[in-house]
Amino acid sequence: MVKVSEFPEELRKKFLARTDMPTFDETPFVKGKPLSERRIALISTGGMHDRADTPFDETSADYRIISKSIDSNDLVMSHISTNYDRLGFQRDINVALPIDRMKELEIEGVIGSLADYHYSFMGATPPEKMEPYVKDMVKLFIKDAVDTVLLCPV
């Protein structure tokens, strides 16, 4: 991943001058149940999806659903960015979506259970464009009894 300090000067200035980032009035703190009792879903911004799904494009603000049972060889990345180094993902998908590590934690009893479905957005999408999709996703979390989400930003 490229650091902002490594951006070309003009791009760095433009990026740091952005004023369109959302602000939030409050961030409530909620104490949850023990990790060993939680049902966890993963959300990545790595533009990952099942090989059979529609790839992301530069206008994608929606998400792709990734089944817990997906075979690692069927998980692909269509993240669109010249600033994104895919080498880590190509060596181990868990750097962008730690699904195999979470399955191990589930077997060991460290977490209560891993959700049946996980989700991926294409990174660098403006949050306000993703908001309607996130609201839809919350309904899916409720249906899958998810009470914890692990964000995996890329």
Description of the molecule:
The protein has 154 residues and is α/β, with parallel strands linked by helices. It has one domain. Helices cover 26% and strands 19% of the residues. It has helices at 9-16, 87-91, 99-108, 127-143; strands at 39-44, 48-50, 63-67, 75-77, 113-114, 117-121, 148-152. Strands 1, 3, 5, 6 and 7 form a five-stranded mixed sheet that branches. The longest helix has 17 residues, at 127-143. The chain is globular and about 50 Å long. It starts with 8 loop residues before the first helix and ends with a strand. The model has no long low-confidence stretch (mean pLDDT 87).
- What is the H/E order? HEEEEHHEEHE
Report mean pLDDT, rounded to a whole number: 87
- The chain-level structural class is alpha/beta
- Tell me the overall shape: globular
The radius of gyration over CA amounts to 17 Å
Low-confidence region ranges: none
How many helices? The count is: 4
How much of the polypeptide forms β-strand, as a percent range?
15-25%
Distance between the termini: 8 Å
- Tally the structural domains: 1
For the largest beta-sheet, the strand count, sense and barrel status come to:
5 strands, mixed
Name the helicity range: 25-40%
Work out the number of β strands.
7
